[in-house]
């Protein structure tokens, strides 16, 4: 059985007693969480977030620079006033440099100028070596970004994938 078939069956079971269809669009806690797409990171269960409580924005590394478009929409149209940046230990973003990844992509498509041009447009893949440093960098970035509302509370956290615990960095 394919993964999509399993998910389709799981959804049928979920939808059979679904009773949350009347939840409002804006998140009840007025919070947006920026976190990593890593499969070991699951903010709802790890933080006790219920359906309808928060916007959860996920990308590689949980980088704020990739989340700004979403945060503008979350704040300006849906009323969020707090942002939590969550990075995590043992992150894949610590395992490469931008030039290495560019090389991997180009090597997989030899002679394909469209691939070369597309991957070269990335100034950086936003990798990092220091998890706490990347959290601090992202919090400062958001606090100073002209499109993020000035009154926004922005905090930064690290989730430990080995223990399940979070710790505040900034």
TrEMBL record:
GO terms for molecular function: carbonate dehydratase activity; zinc ion binding. It catalyses: hydrogencarbonate + H(+) = CO2 + H2O. Coiled coil: none annotated. Belongs to the beta-class carbonic anhydrase family. Its cofactor is Zn(2+). Keywords: Lyase, Metal-binding, Zinc. This is Carbonic anhydrase. PANTHER family: CARBON DISULFIDE HYDROLASE, CARBONIC ANHYDRASE. Its EC number is 4.2.1.1. Reversible hydration of carbon dioxide. It is an enzyme of class 4 (lyase). Binds 1 zinc ion per subunit. Zn(2+) binds at residues 36, 38, 88, 91. The keyword Ubl conjugation does not apply. InterPro entries: Carbonic_anhydrase, Carbonic_anhydrase_sf.
């Amino acid at each position: 059985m394919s993964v999509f078939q399993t998910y389709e069956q799981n959804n049928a079971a979920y939808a059979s007693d679904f009773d949350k269809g009347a939840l409002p669009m804006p998140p009840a806690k007025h919070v947006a969480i920026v976190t990593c797409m890593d499969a070991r990171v699951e903010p709802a269960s790890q933080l006790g977030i219920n359906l309808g409580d928060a916007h959860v924005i996920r990308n590689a590394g949980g980088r704020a620079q990739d989340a700004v478009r979403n945060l503008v929409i979350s704040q300006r149209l849906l009323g969020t006033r707090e942002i939590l940046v969550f990075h995590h230990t043992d992150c894949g973003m610590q395992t490469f440099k931008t030039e290495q990844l560019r090389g991997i992509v180009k090597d997989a498509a030899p002679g394909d100028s469209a691939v070369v041009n597309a991957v070269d447009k990335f100034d950086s893949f936003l990798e990092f070596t220091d998890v706490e440093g990347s959290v601090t960098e992202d919090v400062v970035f958001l606090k100073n970004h002209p499109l993020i509302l000035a009154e926004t509370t922005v905090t930064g956290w690290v989730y430990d994938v080995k223990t399940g615990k979070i710790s505040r960095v900034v």
